[in-house]
Amino acid sequence: MNINSKIYKKKIIFFCENLGNKGGGAEKILCYFANYLNSKKVDVKFYISQPFFSYKKILNSSILLRCYNNFHYSLAFFSLFITIKKEKPNLVISTDFNCNIILILISSLIGTKICIRETITRLETYKYENTLSNKIRNILIRLLYHKAHLIICPSEAVSKDLLKINPKIKKKMRVIYNPVDLKKILFLAKKRTNFKNNFFLYLGRLTKLKNIETLISVFHKIYKINKKYNLLIVGSGNLKNKISKNIKKNNMQDNIIIKDFVNNPYPLIKKANCLILPSYVEGCPNVILETLALNTKIISSNFVGYNEILNKKYSLIFNKDNPNDLYSKMIKFHQGKNLKNITKTYISKNHSFKKIMKKFENTLKEII
């Protein structure tokens, strides 16, 4: 089909697990894509399986949003199957593994064209969470992902990782980086925050793959020798209770503060002395892109693919498997390591909202 053909008046369904359960970058990006297509007069509908709505305000109110209220994936399969049979969309788009597998199985049964989006490096995930469930995920990727009509990855690293698992998907793979709405971020960052000065910031889920316990342990050592900074942790996850108990046990609750998910983190990012991303595994982390947009300094792990968005001229990179290296980089930052300011042209050139959305539209035209 001619790539210049119109996409308007097509019917496209978006499907994901939820609209953000106290965060989640993949869901936010899917909302951006849905809003853009809606602005192009595409008939867009958005379906989720679980009733979590952190990003509901991001989704355009003119887009039909429906929740199946299904916490079990087998029920979500049947609900989405019935929806697709009834709606007969030109395309269905999903994000993340569980929803992708559901969509592939449905497409195999009724022939609907589908686009799936994979957002993390699965082999790296298995390396740090060597569980049966992750092993099964990689087996299913190898057996099923090539049945999708289109696969979108947010970085070259994720793309290469998937190809190692399933080489059959090569011709269906497209890399589309996450967009940054620079104008909106700069506007939202102007709002006041009451949090005091001199703090390191962590923004994300509190899970093993995010390596948050290492950050807390290293900060505790830093604080013993220099009490200039506090650590602000913004997020939620299955390690929250454990982390809170350890903070209290070490009598650090006045210096390590945990806040729940916030709808507008940008004033905190702007005010922070430095954002720290200690993750073992990432895809194309929105928090890094948004921090770059606000010209806040960054200390990041060397997660696979970090060099696609980070440069050592304006960030400090540490070995994710070496807590002592994180300690060293935090000390360097405190001692005034001279990091260059990132220019806004970097974001506008590599993650321009307008350019990324146009690329997304043209990519969909390849299969509609």
Q: How do the strands of the widest beta sheet line up side by side? A: 3-2-1-4-5-6-7
CATH topology of the largest domain, by name, is Rossmann fold
Q: What is the CATH first-level class name of the largest domain?
A: Alpha Beta
Structural class by SSE content: alpha/beta
What is the domain total for the residues? 2
Task: Summarize this entry quickly.
The chain is α/β, with parallel strands linked by helices and 368 residues long. Helices cover 41% and strands 16% of the residues.
Protein architecture, described:
The structure is a single chain. The chain has two domains: 183 residues, Glycogen Phosphorylase B (Rossmann fold); 167 residues, 3-Layer(aba) Sandwich (Rossmann fold). The model has no long low-confidence stretch (mean pLDDT 92). The protein has 368 residues and is an alpha/beta fold. The N and C termini lie close together (8 Å). It is globular and about 65 Å long.
